[in-house]
User: What shape does this take?
Amino acid sequence: MASSPSAGPATTPFSPTTPLRVGVIGLGMGSVHLEAYAAMPDVEVVALAGKEEARLAELGAQYGVPHLFPDWQHLVALPDLDAVSIATPNALHHPIAIAALTAGKHVFCEKPIAIDTAHAREMVQAARDHDRVLEVAFNHRRRADVQYAKRYLDEVGIGRVYHARASWKRRAGIPGLRSWFTNKAMAGGGALIDLGPHVLDSLLFLLGEPRVVAVSAVTHGELGRAGYGAMDRSEQMLSDTGAFEVEDLASALFRLDDGSSVAFEISWAGHTVDDEDIAIELLGVDGGVRLFVPRYASDGTLRIFRDVAGAPVTIEPEVHVPGGEHPLVIREFVDAVRGGNWDAHRGDFALHRTAVLDACYRSATEGREIRLEP
Assistant: This one.
């Protein structure tokens, strides 16, 4: 094992010649993190942790990572580490982030920030207490069509937006009937906590970050329990095993602090025409915006509706989405750490998004509207 540099985690912004020393935890999405960091000349990946021994060795060799660990605790304890990148099952986000922040490391974390509001709040507080960056991977808002829509709303506008519709629907997209994705203790939930954070984040970003003040939601797990809807159709599952512990569909109504409303629907599976379709529709007094992304489409995803000279007009901006949004948010994390403006990156947006989704689960369980704390 290679020797470690003697310097500890930085307490001030980095100089242009000082590499940011990063450790990655997780070998699935962690490989995406590794690829992104490897392309940055001002970053050095010095450690990697994961349970799959062969995969750990393979990725370590591919990216030249000197320290390889089967357990994340050993990685976080490294004294020469500036930042930790978390790409693990959802339930591990909280303990890893708390340990890393307490040890003086900056943290980049896959969404959701945590499986519930209490854990998310503790993570945000730890980032404040230890004066470190806590960033969450909301990469969908970096899509070129979402960015164009935001500029249009800011520069031209569609009047007061009084209602919105937002959804991500799949025909057959349960990530794994026997994986941690369908284990409630490990995932915290199903489709809502898996796909919902991206849709909710893009929606609130477009709307200018209003606060959700109340939710009324229902959840269903009928198809997963019946053995339908697996992303890998070779998977089979008996309907009476009880192993499918989460929802494959969630539907909710949100009330926002500006008096507007949102119809929100997320599904992993359904006997329907929808097949990996993402949609956000904003209804304004003077116009409307519809973002519709079928199967991660790159072109023709955005339309704007308004009246011009007394007649309805549809505007179809030529916006191409080249992809590669995940490296963008990782680059932003690195820039935030290196820039030193850490107060603006404590995970607050992620906390609110988790609070909203947590309230949806409570509403579905208790059969009533849930009011969010201010």
Observations:
- Residues 140-323 form a domain with the Dihydrodipicolinate Reductase; domain 2 fold (CATH 3.30.360.10).
- The chain has two domains: 20-138, 140-323.
- The radius of gyration is 21 Å.
